[in-house]
Amino acid sequence: MKLANLEYTILSKNGVVQPKKVAFVGSSPMPLTSLIMASHHMKSTHFDNFDIDGAANLMARKIVSFDAEFEKRMKFHTCDIMEVKEKLGEYDCIFLATLVGMSKVEKMKFLGHIRQYMKDGGVLLVRSANGARAFLYPVIEENELMESKVLSIFHPTNDVINSVVLVRKPIF
Ligand SMILES: C[S@@+](CC[C@H](N)C(=O)[O-])C[C@H]1O[C@@H](n2cnc3c(N)ncnc32)[C@H](O)[C@@H]1O
């Protein structure tokens, strides 16, 4: 919850307040970030949650089905994000979960793919790590962000483990 609230603070400081459509890539069986965003911050936003694991999405749909309003605004898609192309252009904001890409090489592949298909002017929030926390999660460095405009890089020093990297795809 602290991570999601931190992410919203960073997004809103960078002008992303009520995006129309958000994608969460690697939403897991417990789509907590989307739920916190939808309930506390982005109260009219539509969320598309992507996960490669059908069982994860079954569980996530079950959790969301208890609330009719969330169910309308929150959809779950089972696929490898590498297979999602033009659809990525629909989102004002895309979250990339930490463990989509377990190694630096894999993570760079996902970043490059999303960067290619996301809309011009859209923002991408990448969960990363810093220092000893790199034992848990792959680290993304500023110079690896592929011609995107870096809006913010935040390394928490409290019990929030993930760093938060926010970039915008330039409008050409
Ligand atoms: C552990 S969860 C993420 C939760 C955590 N809050 C985070 O930020 O990392 C990572 C999810 O990413 C999904 N995932 C991994 N590779 C993927 C891919 N190529 N496309 C879509 N989802 C993927 C996994 O199935 C898993 O449910």
From TrEMBL:
Full protein name: Uncharacterized protein
Source organism of this protein record: Pistacia atlantica
